[in-house]
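One-letter codes give the sequence; backbone shape is given numerically. An example follows:

. . .
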Amino acid sequence: MKRLDTRRLGRHAAFAALWVVLAATFLAARRGVARYRASQCVEEVSISVDGSNAATFLSEQTVRDWVLSYDCNPLGMTLDEVDLAALESSIESNDAVADANVYLTSGGRVEIDVRQRRPLMRLMVDGYDLYVADDGYLFAAPPRSTIYVPVVTGDYRPLFDAAYSGYARDVVRDSMARIDSRIAALESDKIPLYTALQQNSRAMKRLSAERASKGWFTSDEEYALRREQLELYKAQRRGELTAEAKMLRARIDDLTRNQESEGKRQKKLEKIEEDFSKLINFVNIIQHDDFWSSEIVQIVAHGGGERELEIELIPRSGRYTILFGRADDIERKLSDLDAFYRRVLTNVGWDRYRTVSVKYKGQVVCR
């Protein structure tokens, strides 16, 4: 038994010694890393931008120029001094950047991976010059930008301001929330009016129930006078209560009309959002078709909001205008237009017509 206890104690002592060695090694490694981070300076920043090509805004040099201009520029800083979160946030503050990932390598190099927004179209209606990315994000066109994407012109008016940057859906969501808040506030304003109307109704019932009293020693003449005076009072009071009830109902009706007006504003916002979504969907379809993305050089958008959104297209191949109509049934209209191109325009010439309409199902109307 003593020999077994000695062996068990020996094993425990060996394990304890092993843990002491491991802990000491770990602490030494940590101190070494800390010393290295405190003394090693960043001498290189490596930048990777996904999808850098002619249809995007960003290049590695663009991002590098940004980094060099920031207060959190890591070049020359020790590894401990580099604020990766601040650098990442600064890069993402640029509208053309969808997101950025910044990290340090074991060799002390700062790696920056940038995913940029890809422009889908350029909105150049009166007073607006915004790019719309393929994820629906809007931002002002950078100076001297020449990205080749479809240009949308016309009298179409979007919901957002000309200087807006962000998602169009956020504008709608925030506007809807404000309208919901106003509708709720109007409903709250009704509560004291409903309470006053109930009190008015109870007062009217009490008034109707009032009767002139006749005591044992009250003469008929005095009782008749009391009744006459009570009827005069009741008539006057009934008129006051009726006028008050009418005023309360009128105020409630005004608040209800205001709520209905706010509700109509919500429906209009929903229609504007729907129109913008249709416009983005239309451009997406055009952009994903090799022929139409090359053929359509300008999109003219009319209406929107209270008016139906209608689209005209300016083609590359001729001097005619394509009257596309509403931004629905898109594939069928493009199919009709494609057949017209192949069967008619290639035979009669590209300058024969001034307008080509595919607004109506099964028809291509030319003038």
